[in-house]
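Researcher: Go.
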Amino acid sequence: MKSLRTKVAVVAAAVSFVSVASAAELTIQPTLEVSNALTLTQVAGTALNFGRIRAQTDDTTDDCRTLYIPANTTNQPTTTKPANIGGANGTALTALCAAAADSSMAILSPLADLTVVSFEVSDAAPFTSLDITIDHSADIESPDPAAAAFEVPFVDVYRTTTPAAAVAMTPTSRVSAGSISTGAAGTVAFNLGALISTEVTTDEFIDASYTGSIVVTVDY
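Model: Structure:
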């Protein structure tokens, strides 16, 4: 009688366990560059020039005369006081030289000799509003400190970059402030004109070259 033997193979499955960390950490370094600087350039060959004039003072209150060079060069310089300055909705000039009588002002130069000064702003952020501050508190004076001087009560700014338009400037104690926006390239250009007036004084003007100082600041 044969003995039947049955072999049973038992396969043991081996299980491998891998230990995985529950968190990972990295350190990064953020970077940036600050560029707040912008460039303001006076266009070569341009200057605020009131030409050659005849002028006479008077010491009566508000007895003075004006000479206005508009920043918008499609308008002519004039000794007729405008109703306002800085566009149709600009600053009203009703009270300025309201008692004009014995004082006088006349343009002797060809009108083409009376010119505005032009500026260009570059390296600014695109499509950004910039603040313009113009300090016109200094008088236009001759070398003789005893002679009469011209005041600069108002300035006029006109944007020449498309879309061209008058820039509203708010005057406070002969410092005017406004704003202007850059285009896609971070640039903008504008003209600066001004209105000058004779002093109310007993001093007289002398035959001489008169010079002054206007400070233009553009920032964010």
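Model: Residues 13 and 64 are 111 Å apart (CA to CA).
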